[in-house]
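Format notes (please read before filing issues)

Several people have asked whether sequences and structure tokens are stored in separate files. They are not. Every record keeps both together, in the order shown below: the sequence lines, then the token lines. Line labels are part of the format and must not be stripped during preprocessing.
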Amino acid sequence: MIEASVFIIIGQVSREEGGEKIQVHVMLAAPDEDSAVRETLNALAREGFAEADLDQIGLLEGMPDEEPHSTAYEGVLEGEVAVITFD
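Then the structure lines:
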């Protein structure tokens, strides 16, 4: 079991400044909200996104029922940051 909380952050991202935005869900383990937001922005930059507007942050209290979130949750428990985009 992980010692950090599992967060989900919902927002909009684009690959270029001023570009068309798509919805994104980022799931990750972090000790607090500030760390979760910082790591989310770092992960989005690594994935090639130039802009991000983060709208909501929440805590997950267990594995989600539906894909792709349930598989992503398993990866988060192993230390991964899951970036799920919706085109």
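For reference, the curators noted about this record: The chain is about 25% helix and 40% strand. The first strand starts at residue 5 and ends at 14.
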